[in-house]
Amino acid sequence: MNRLADALAPLGLMLLLLAAWELACRLTGVPAYFLPPPSRVAAAAVSGLPVLVPAAWNTLSVALVALALAAGGAIALAVLVGLSPLLERAVRPLASALQVTPVVAVAPLILIWAGIDHPERAVIALAVLVAFFPIFSGAVTGLRSADPDLERLFDLYGAGRLQRVMRLRLPAAVPFLMEGLKVGAGLAIIGAVVAEFAAGSGGVRGLAWQILDAGNKLQTDRMIAALVVLAVMGVAVHAGLERLERAGLRWWRGR
Amino acid sequence: MGSAVALEEVEVDYRGRGRALGPVSLDIEDGEIVALVGPSGCGKSTALRLLAGLEPATRGQVRRAPGRGETSVVFQAPTLAPWMSAAANVALPLELSGAPKAEARARALEALERVGLAGAGDSRPAQLSGGMAMRASLARALVTRPRLLMLDEPFAALDEITRRTLADDVLALWSQTRPAIVFVTHNVEEAAYMAGRIVVLTRGPGRIAGEVRVEAPLPRPAGFRTWPVFTEAAEAVSALLARGAEAAP
Question: What is the ipTM of this complex?
Answer without folding.
Answer: 0.85
